[in-house]
Amino acid sequence: MGRLLNGKRIVVTGAAQGIGAALAEGFAGMGAKVVLSDVADPEPAAQRVRDQGGEALGVKADVTELADCERMVAAAEKAFGGLDGLVNNAALFATLPIAMQDEIEPELWDRVMAVNVKGPWLCSRAAVPAMVRAGGGSIVMIATNRIFHGFPGMLHYDASKGAVLAMTRSLIRELGSKNIRVNTVAPGLTMSEGVLAREGIAERAPEIAASRSLARNQVPEDLVGPCAFFLSDQAGFVTGQSLGVDGGGVIH
Ligand SMILES: NC(=O)c1ccc[n+]([C@@H]2O[C@H](COP(=O)([O-])OP(=O)(O)OC[C@H]3O[C@@H](n4cnc5c(N)ncnc54)[C@H](O)[C@@H]3O)[C@@H](O)[C@H]2O)c1
Fold it and tell me: How far is ligand 1, taken at its centre, from the CA of residue 177, in Å?
């Protein structure tokens, strides 16, 4: 059997660092050709993939701008001859200060919705015509396990990721006839660069790890296999599903 993602052409948004960069690197190791997209410069992360022998392109794009999303998809088609997969990973998360619902600035609420909800919609919208040209495709939405349990301090973020799950379920009713699948992956707290830079995380990490069935810190690489499965032909009849990846912390 060949590698799981052999020849798949996949765009990962928010791939300059953290989970997105780890996904792109992992997919390339499974034979995919990857576009690393980010509003920050994704080129260093793309170069790391190429240094390991992978095929990778960095594209600077803001997911809140439809024109940027269309340019990102066009770059993937131009570089690799088509598009088979999209991971909607870009989001405002690690940089969001913890704030109770009555402390969140309405402007920040709107910005979180723009990046975390409108962004995945615009990227999916831009990707669909290219996936149709490729004969079908797979979209993976990155949510969070927080939406299945309820936690204080990030109502804007939790609302945005709940919307992502709802979009997954409604999108499949529109995209199934185009042979496009959509699934959600819901990570637990993951030690990405952004999270590690948060104040107090080192002190909280042991308690979070102990709350899991698999009692250790979650790392970005833990998301690679589950996302790759949804992007692969092995998940050819799997759509509209959500998979928690958090070491058994929250069960839904
Ligand atoms: N790390 C965690 O604990 C955790 C847990 C559950 C879910 N998630 C989700 O996983 C994903 C990645 O998390 P992470 O920890 O690697 O986050 P991160 O903050 O380190 O990375 C997010 C990336 O998105 C990019 N980005 C932000 N706004 C953008 C925009 N407008 N257009 C394009 N790119 C933009 C950032 O530049 C950054 O590179 C996010 O969707 C996050 O919500 C993370």
Answer: 30
